[in-house]
Amino acid sequence: MFLYLNFLSSKGSSTEAQIAFLQGERKGQENLKKDLVRRIKMLEYALKQERAKYHKLKYGTELNQGDMKPPSYDSDEGNETEVQPQQNSQLMWKQGRQLLRQ
Fold first, then answer.
1. Is it the case that residue 51 has pLDDT exceeding 80?
2. Who contacts 93 (Cβ-Cβ below 8 Å, separation ≥6)?
3. How far, in Å, CA of 102 to CA of 53, rounded?
4. Predicted local confidence at residue 24, as pLDDT
5. What is the pLDDT of residue 73?
6. What's the CA gap between 86 and 88, in Å, rounded?
7. pLDDT band at 81 (very low <50, low <70, confident <90, very high)
8. C-alpha 74: how far from its chain's center?
């Protein structure tokens, strides 16, 4: 009887360890996904800026892009806050690089 109870307790602890491991792995995957989504948003915004800059240099007029606001990197997709676009593209480049380093 004692051996059976000992076996059950050791099996339960190994199951709990496996559950904890899988939960940690899932959390890591969620963090990776969130980071990749943040990087994609940053790259899409940088591409829009480059296209607008090229259009202005080639045609001499501003390109009318409706949603030329920088994306909110820390929020979820549904809770994005509007941030005023900054004029200095050099500053935006530095901020983008800092975001990638995080």
1. yes
2. 46
3. 27
4. 93
5. 64
6. 6
7. very low
8. 7
Q: What type of residue sits at position 19? A: I
State how far the alpha carbon of 58 is from the alpha carbons of 53, 54, 76, 92, 93, in Å.
Answer: 9, 6, 36, 22, 22
The one-letter code for the residue type at 26 is R
Report the chain's mean pLDDT, rounded to a whole number.
76
* Three-state secondary structure readout of the chain: CHHHHHHHHHHHHHHHHHHHHHHHHHHHHHHHHHHHHHHHHHHHHHHHHHHHHHHHHHHCCCCCCCCCCCCCCCCCCCCCCCCCCCCCHHHHHHHHHHHHHC
Question: For residue 38, what are its two tokens?
Answer: 């943040």
Percentage with pLDDT > 90 across the chain: 33
Considering the entire predicted model, what is its pTM? 0.53
CA distance 69 to 32: 24
Residue 26's nearest CA partner among 34, 38, 73 is 34
